[in-house]
Amino acid sequence: MPELAHIAGGFGAALSVIGAAYGISKLAAATMEASGRQPEVAGEVRTSMIISAALIEGVTLFAEVICIILALK
Amino acid sequence: MFLSNLAFASDTLKHAEEAHGGESSSWMLHHIADSRTIDLEPFGHINLPQFPPIHIGGIEIDLSITKHVFFMWIVSLVLVVVLSLVAKSYRKQVVPRGLANLVEVFVVFIRDEIVLSVIGKEGLKYLHYFLTLFFFILLCNLFGLIPYGATATGNLAVTGGLAFLSFILIQLAGIKKHGLIGYYKGLVPHGVPGFVAPIMFIVEFLGLFAKAFALTVRLFANMTAGHIVILSLIGLIFVFKSVLVAPISIGFAIFINLLEILVAFIQAYIFTMLTALFVGLSIHQH
């Protein structure tokens, strides 16, 4: 049934975006707090934030690829 | 820039509807997926030369030139020409001018911020690989954003190939530093109880492949996602069959297109950065 696959694709995309948004928002909040407390290490903190954000995003994109495959079935 | 994209989208939509009986998502795939022709709609298309497939031990290998291969060649050509011109300009004078200035910013950034800060001094002998990787991915990403261009990095085979090269570098760097047995022994951290060690080894060993797989999918999905969003926004005009939707969807599409320029740089940076990070992890084992 292609309709169910479409619904599943939409729900999956939405759910994985919620997860990623939660993860990245916590990450950004912590980074800003850290660079607010210690502005001299802001560069290093930003670098490690980008790496962690990329790792979170990577997992999300796995889910999104699966959703695209479902939706284009 | 956008008008030609729009003309292209409407033409492909028309063709797709003729070909697939009005199936709505296939024209998007046509734009993103690899093909054997280079589309120059409204001026027709170029058929790329085809070769008969080679049979090696029951496996059929088709080495025909496709759209993405063609664009990778263009990127390589541009890189070889531009970067060798830049390198030559340093022979005349040490202070960079013009284009050399731009390239120097990237090269110094990759050397100081990525290689030296993540791997350390030992990483400098792998600097060539990181520079090549960064400039190749960056130009592949950017070529997908110009009209009639194709994103070679929006192809799993291309990103998989890049990640495979990174995987080999990660292993070789570790083996060179610690020796073949020492490297794979060092995958298990010190101080792990004896009965957990075999499980940890299996997990860490699979992790080596997972890193390369994550690199592959991250670049592929990021480059594909942007194109799908732009095409969907333009597709809204044809879904609603109204001109009134056009200003909104074109406005958003331009915004996403500008965002894609940012994403092109970030993804090139991330791929290089993560490769450097993994090389650093395999060199400095704990």
UniProtKB/TrEMBL annotation, chain A:
<keyword id="KW-0812">Transmembrane</keyword>
<feature type="domain" description="V-ATPase proteolipid subunit C-like">
    <location>
        <begin position="7"/>
        <end position="70"/>
    </location>
</feature>
<keyword id="KW-0138">CF(0)</keyword>
<protein>
    <recommendedName>
        <fullName>ATP synthase subunit c</fullName>
    </recommendedName>
</protein>
<dbReference type="GO" id="GO:0005886">
    <property type="term" value="C:plasma membrane"/>
</dbReference>
<dbReference type="InterPro" id="IPR038662">
    <property type="entry name" value="ATP_synth_F0_csu_sf"/>
</dbReference>
<keyword id="KW-0472">Membrane</keyword>
<dbReference type="GO" id="GO:0045259">
    <property type="term" value="C:proton-transporting ATP synthase complex"/>
</dbReference>
<dbReference type="InterPro" id="IPR002379">
    <property type="entry name" value="ATPase_proteolipid_c-like_dom"/>
</dbReference>
<keyword id="KW-1003">Cell membrane</keyword>
<keyword id="KW-0406">Ion transport</keyword>
<keyword id="KW-1133">Transmembrane helix</keyword>
<dbReference type="InterPro" id="IPR005953">
    <property type="entry name" value="ATP_synth_csu_bac/chlpt"/>
</dbReference>
<dbReference type="GO" id="GO:0046933">
    <property type="term" value="F:proton-transporting ATP synthase activity, rotational mechanism"/>
</dbReference>
<feature type="site" description="Reversibly protonated during proton transport">
    <location>
        <position position="57"/>
    </location>
</feature>
<dbReference type="InterPro" id="IPR020537">
    <property type="entry name" value="ATP_synth_F0_csu_DDCD_BS"/>
</dbReference>
<comment type="function">
    <text>F(1)F(0) ATP synthase produces ATP from ADP in the presence of a proton or sodium gradient. F-type ATPases consist of two structural domains, F(1) containing the extramembraneous catalytic core and F(0) containing the membrane proton channel, linked together by a central stalk and a peripheral stalk. During catalysis, ATP synthesis in the catalytic domain of F(1) is coupled via a rotary mechanism of the central stalk subunits to proton translocation.</text>
</comment>
<dbReference type="InterPro" id="IPR035921">
    <property type="entry name" value="F/V-ATP_Csub_sf"/>
</dbReference>
<dbReference type="InterPro" id="IPR000454">
    <property type="entry name" value="ATP_synth_F0_csu"/>
</dbReference>
<dbReference type="GO" id="GO:0008289">
    <property type="term" value="F:lipid binding"/>
</dbReference>
<feature type="transmembrane region" description="Helical">
    <location>
        <begin position="47"/>
        <end position="72"/>
    </location>
</feature>
<dbReference type="GO" id="GO:0033177">
    <property type="term" value="C:proton-transporting two-sector ATPase complex, proton-transporting domain"/>
</dbReference>
TrEMBL record, chain B:
<feature type="transmembrane region" description="Helical">
    <location>
        <begin position="228"/>
        <end position="255"/>
    </location>
</feature>
<dbReference type="GO" id="GO:0005886">
    <property type="term" value="C:plasma membrane"/>
</dbReference>
<protein>
    <recommendedName>
        <fullName>ATP synthase subunit a</fullName>
    </recommendedName>
</protein>
<keyword id="KW-0813">Transport</keyword>
<feature type="transmembrane region" description="Helical">
    <location>
        <begin position="195"/>
        <end position="221"/>
    </location>
</feature>
<feature type="transmembrane region" description="Helical">
    <location>
        <begin position="156"/>
        <end position="175"/>
    </location>
</feature>
<dbReference type="GO" id="GO:0046933">
    <property type="term" value="F:proton-transporting ATP synthase activity, rotational mechanism"/>
</dbReference>
<dbReference type="Pfam" id="PF00119">
    <property type="entry name" value="ATP-synt_A"/>
</dbReference>
<dbReference type="InterPro" id="IPR023011">
    <property type="entry name" value="ATP_synth_F0_asu_AS"/>
</dbReference>
<feature type="transmembrane region" description="Helical">
    <location>
        <begin position="70"/>
        <end position="87"/>
    </location>
</feature>
<keyword id="KW-0066">ATP synthesis</keyword>
<keyword id="KW-1003">Cell membrane</keyword>
<keyword id="KW-0472">Membrane</keyword>
<feature type="transmembrane region" description="Helical">
    <location>
        <begin position="126"/>
        <end position="149"/>
    </location>
</feature>
<dbReference type="GO" id="GO:0045259">
    <property type="term" value="C:proton-transporting ATP synthase complex"/>
</dbReference>
<keyword id="KW-0138">CF(0)</keyword>
<feature type="transmembrane region" description="Helical">
    <location>
        <begin position="261"/>
        <end position="283"/>
    </location>
</feature>
<comment type="similarity">
    <text>Belongs to the ATPase A chain family.</text>
</comment>
<keyword id="KW-0406">Ion transport</keyword>
<keyword id="KW-0812">Transmembrane</keyword>
<dbReference type="InterPro" id="IPR000568">
    <property type="entry name" value="ATP_synth_F0_asu"/>
</dbReference>
<dbReference type="InterPro" id="IPR035908">
    <property type="entry name" value="F0_ATP_A_sf"/>
</dbReference>
